[in-house]
Structures are given as structure tokens and as C-alpha cells.
Amino acid sequence: MRQLPQEAAAIQQWLVNLPLKIDWKGEGLPATSQRVFNELLRSERRSPTPAERKRILVEQDGRCYICGGIVEGPKERPRDAEFDHVSPLRMTVRGQRQVFVAACSSCHLEKSQLEGRQDRSRESHFSPHVWQSYVCNQRPPPLVFESHKKEDHSDLFELDVRRCRANALAKSVYHWPIFSPYDSIVESTPGVLADFSFIELTNSKRQSSLLCHLPYLGPSWMAKPVVEWMLHVGLCGWQDIKLSLQATAHVPPTCLRQVIETMDAAWPEEQKHLQK
Fold first, then answer.
1. How many structural domains are present in the chain?
2. Are residues 62 and 132 in the same domain?
3. How does residue 74 score in pLDDT terms, banded at 50, 70 and 90?
4. pLDDT of residue 212 exceeding 80
5. Does 99 share its domain with 200?
6. 223-228: long-range contacts (C-beta < 8 A, 24 or more apart)?
7. pTM for the structure as a whole
């Protein structure tokens, strides 16, 4: 037995205003928001058009892309061809291009059953080496100024950045990476900027003042937008980028923007403070 969250009425009203049905089970706002986010991010199923089907069969020479058996009948009409998503639909985000291939019915069934036993999330998965070297390695800590801990009573200037994390998700100019166990850490190549880079400043002059070199606080992995900014303003050079980690798969930034805007628009005016 557990008590309903304090915002239960507001959560229920918010769910009613959403363009999809969510079976609420009394979760708190963070857990409910996560469910809504994933549901809105899910891609809508579509089937290949007749022109796409014909093109796919021509490209595959009328054969199943798994076993190589013939799936095309006379007069370019498929006998038992079924068209399968290359990337499982449950792992495809809204707005992402859906790519199809032709398969015979038995191979398609076997592949669908195998995928049904796999993880349904869109999370990154890392090899043991990348997990130890990247996930368990040093990354920049959150840069938060705690004005209430200042001991003296001098005047302070406070800058409030509203919803910085939501804006970072919704307005990113880069595609979001999703890693697989096949993605490896490699030595960096000058002029090539990866999704994540390991930065280690080698010039002693750059380390003379810690405050002047934020967000750099020491050797660590940094995301592509941060590294690009550091290169632009001269905080680091290509020689300071030691290692690179690039994902094979990416999702377009517009998909997250649409999801966040939909979630925001569903909140009643008197409950707008719960958007964050």
C-alpha cells in the first residue's frame, strides 16, 4: 500500500490533456513523465508503399535478405515476400526514417520472435572496455553556484537559467547518439569531432586560472557541443583531444523537441509550475 502523490489531481488532468491514453497507476510525477516521454517518442507504424516494395525487391534480386530464398513471383509480384523494419519499430523514434527489407515469411517470423525477447528500450549499451573507460571514468561535475553558502553578506548577482535541461534537449543542433557494444574508443583525429572526446590540456598556460577555463576542470570526457565551444574560443586545441567515442546510431534532435512541446502544452495554466 502506498499513498498517492501530492500532485495526483494535477497529474490526472495532465494525462487527460495529452494526445494519447496513459494508464496511470499512481506513480509520482517523475515516473509518470518518463512514461509519457517514452510513449510520445515512439514511432508510428507505417508500411512501405507499392513503389518502395518494387524497388526493394529489385535491389534484393527478388530474394530474402536473410536466407537468400526467392520471394518474388512472376511479373514482379511478390509470392510470399514480407517487408520487415531493419531497425525494430519499438527502437525507432518519432520522425526517424523507417527502412525496410524483403524477407520470406518464415525468416520474418523467426526474426520477430528473436527481437521480441530483446530489450525494448532505446538506451545505449556499451562494451566492457568502453564501460570502464567512459562510463566509469571522469566527467565534468555539475557547475552549480550555491549562493546561500556564501559566508559574508555582500551583494550578489544571481542569474537564473530557466529550464536549461529541457532547452538543451529540445533545441540541440546535434543528433543524439545511441551507443552499441560495437562502438569503441579510438585515438582522436585532428579535425574530426566525435560525440564524446577525452580532453587533457597540455599547455600549462591554459591551466593558470581554473575559473577562466570553465567548463574544463581537469582531464575528462566532454560532449561534442562543449568541445566545439572550447575549440572556438581557444580553450583547447586539437592536440588536447586525446580520445574519441563516436556512436553508430543517432536520432534526430527534432523528435525530442516535439515530445517536450507536446508535454508542455498539456499542462493546465494553473499547473504550469509543474512543467519543470
1. 2
2. no
3. very low
4. no
5. no
6. 223/195, 223/196, 224/174, 224/193, 224/194, 224/195, 224/196, 224/197, 225/172, 225/173, 225/174, 226/140, 227/193, 227/197, 227/199, 228/193
7. 0.69
